[in-house]
Structures are given as C-alpha cells and as structure tokens.
Amino acid sequence: MSISTVITAAGKNSRMRRDQISRGIELTNKLILPFNNKTVIETTIDNALSLNIDECIVVLGHYSADIKEVIYDNYKDDVKFIENNPVDVGLSVSLYNGLSNITSDFALCITADQPTVSAETFAKLIEVLQNAPDPYKTISVLRRRKTGLLDTAEGLGMPFAAPRKNLMKYLENENDNLNPILRKIFDDGYDFYGIKEKNEKELLNINHYNDYIKLLD
C-alpha cells in the first residue's frame, strides 16, 4: 500500500492572535511557537517523517512567509511545500490541494497544530486502514468518542487515513470544515474506525493560547 502524508498549515491563526493581543504577548503564529526544543509544526513534521511514507506535503496559506522563514531550510529536502492560491479558503480546500500533489493510493491527513499526536498513533491509523476489509471504503481516524467500528462521524476531524482519490471526490468544489464532509462520506457507507489516543494530549488541538500552555505542562 502506497501512502503519503498531507499536513495542513494554512489557517488564519485568528483565535491565537486574539489571545496573544489580550495577554499583551508578542504576536507569533501558533505553528512556530516553541515546542519540545523545536516548534509546533516541526514536531508534527518530524513525527510524520518518522513513518514509512512515500512523501510528505505541507500545505501553507496564511502567514506562509513567516512559517517558511523558520522551517524551510531544515525541511526543503524532505518535504514538499505548496501554497494555497487564494489563501482565504476553508480547510477542505487546503486538504484537496495537498492531496492533488501526491500520487499515493492512500493519505495520512494531519493538521500542523497537533504536535502531541505521536508517530505511534499515526502508524496505528495506517495499520488499521491497511488491514481493513476494503481500504478503499474505509477511513481510520483518531477517535473523539468511541473506538473501533463507529456508528457516526459526528465530531470527527484530523488526523485520519483515507483513500486519496475517493476522498478527493468529496472535497472537490467544497470550501468548508471537514466534519460535514466526513459525515457525508459516512452516510455513503464508508467504514469509520476510531483509534484510541496514546494519551489525552493527543486529542488537543492548539487553537487558543491556553491550549498551548496545557500542552507544555
């Protein structure tokens, strides 16, 4: 099974900026905040690169220049960077653009603000997809409620592993968050498998400054 990774890193960072302004903190994109002696996005990329994958795509958009200034030289040989044009698009467009730049049959889809999701958990997502009765009609996803074969897609988002071309059909011409699209895929009869987190921090995205502080504890 050929599989590549798409990491979305194109968001507006608006909630973090509001929190930094209210706290009188220097404005810094959440993806380049320090984390484990690196930055948030570098930790996420390193976890992805530690897997046996064909390639890694990072999708940039808002603040792409700020992010590339910090990380590009360290990853230009191992990661393909692409940029949304226009930049003001939904997460579904970022993911579609990333999937359009890989040729693998399957994709591990990650958001850059999930540095605590371990390589072990990513590998489990891939393993469950590989071993599914029909991988082309299956999505393995980090659980939000139940584990195993799921009876709903409510509340689900990245990270997940999925068949690339089939996923692209649902993302094409959409400009939205991912959950409504995942619910549509579920309603069309795909099997969704929820993977249990290694620890509770794996379930936390960095949206607000308090989220970032929790991950540092």
Q: What's the CATH H-level homologous superfamily? A: Spore Coat Polysaccharide Biosynthesis Protein SpsA, Chain A
Low-confidence stretches: none
Q: pLDDT average, as an integer?
A: 95
Question: What is the spatial order of strands in the main beta sheet?
Answer: 5-4-1-6-9-7-10-8
Determine the number of helices (DSSP H or I, runs of at least 4 residues): 8
> Which sheet architecture does the biggest sheet show?
8 strands, mixed
Q: Which class do the helix and strand fractions yield?
A: alpha/beta
CATH-defined architecture: Alpha-Beta Complex
Helix content: 25-40%
CATH fold topology: Spore Coat Polysaccharide Biosynthesis Protein SpsA, Chain A
Question: Please, could you describe this protein's structure?
Answer:
This protein has an 8-stranded mixed β-sheet with strand order 5-4-1-6-9-7-10-8, sandwiched between helices. Helix 4 runs antiparallel to helix 6 (164-171). The longest helix is centred in the N-terminal third of the chain and has 12 residues, at 64-75. The chain has one domain (3-216): Alpha-Beta Complex (Spore Coat Polysaccharide Biosynthesis Protein SpsA, Chain A), CATH 3.90.550. The model has no long low-confidence stretch (mean pLDDT 95). With 217 residues, it is an alpha/beta fold. It contains 8 helices and 10 strands. The radius of gyration is 16 Å and the shape is globular.
